[in-house]
Amino acid sequence: MSDTPPADERDELELRRLRWRCRRGMRELDQLFGRYLDRAWRQSSDEERGVFLRLLETEDDKLWHWFMGHEAAQDARLQELVEKIRNLPV
Predict the structure, then answer these.
(1) pLDDT tens-digit readout, 23-70
(2) Degrees (nearest 5) of the Cα angle 49, 74, 70?
(3) Which one, of 53, 19, 50, 37, lies nearest residue 85 by Cα?
(4) 2-16 residue pLDDT tens
(5) pTM (2 decimals)?
(6) How far is CA 2 from each of CA 6, 8, 10, rounded to the nearest angstrom?
(7) By three-state DSSP, how is residue 24 classified?
């Protein structure tokens, strides 16, 4: 018998950890990241998940400008994900 939890349980643990990392202290960013986790994370590819983790490493002020459309991310993959998150239904 293995000590490794089943895949569904691992996914839920990862999702809980990500929710904690998504807490930015800016309600708007918190809502955008939460919406992505709720609506798109489970279906996203490993590549997109990696881009999302890179997005979480970005400073809040940059994220704010990107998500509000004041600036665009220099990295095309980050910008694509920002646009996808911005366009998720509320």
Answers:
(1) 998 999 999 999 999 999 999 999 999 999 999 999 999 999 999 999
(2) 100
(3) 37
(4) 577 787 888 889 999
(5) 0.88
(6) 10, 15, 14
(7) coil
